[in-house]
Amino acid sequence: MAVQAPEAVVMVRPHRFRPNEATLADNGFQTDGGGVDLARVAACAFDEATRAAEALEAAGVTVHLFEDERDDRPDSVFPNNWMSTHSGGHVAVYPMFTPNRRSERRGDIIDTLKARYRVQDVIDYSGLEYDDVFLEGTGAMVLDHEFRIAYATRSNRADPVALERFCTNFGYEPMVFEASDARSIPIYHTNVMMCVATEFALVGLDAITSPMRRNEVAERLAGRNRRSVIELSSAQLDEFCGNAIELEAQDRRVLALSRRAFDALTGEQRAVIERSAELLPLDVPTIELAGGSVRCMLAGVHLDPRPQRSQTPG
Q: Which InterPro entries does the record associate with it (predicted)?
């Protein structure tokens, strides 16, 4: 298994998707869902998640697809916000900023991971919600698994207390910065402005408000000359170019991103990416109304699989 790129992902297929009115206030990437045909939106999101899972499977990525038929979890299509998995058999469960997202945490998903993979422990930070302390998983953090760095932009979704606790438990160095979009709205999740892959990183450096911190982030992303740092413009961030994830697909790596993001990349940027990863664009325009894209839809599985038991004839 590649250190940075997981071979499997968890996805949740929503039956009642809609843009979450409770998250609109601090999510500058979200579209106001007022006036839309909610039944049509839900049907389109269901189809987009289905096609995305099929495309990933066809590319050679293992997809663990779960259904969500409840109508009170509009953002359940984004499981990476409430859970993450880590080499050595560790799982983290996170405190969520918006109350109507907290029921997205599902024991059946954790139980499936325990059955299919070697899970040694589950560290549950969700109790921090009672102290108004939040850390929304690999939305709030972008993790460099090789160099053990947790990049995080300051926001309602990334409390420094929770971040420090996670980094202490899991062995990451926190690297925190202030970042805003082109409208001077603080960026709510780090993974809409940054993607760390094995041999390259995508990042909206200009969104980082401090020039000194901007240079420090660029230097750390370069990682001892390991990576090409591909700078994204503010316009490209708005097209979700930063919201991508590298995956291991049998004999190669792929970069999963939305069709919208793929179209917004320049030819030169695509060429740099394709030196080490095949681009895999997925059509998710309805889901992107909620302010997240392909990266948010995929919770990577960084766990060792259990050997499959053979059936002994009776």
A: Amdntrnsf_FN0238
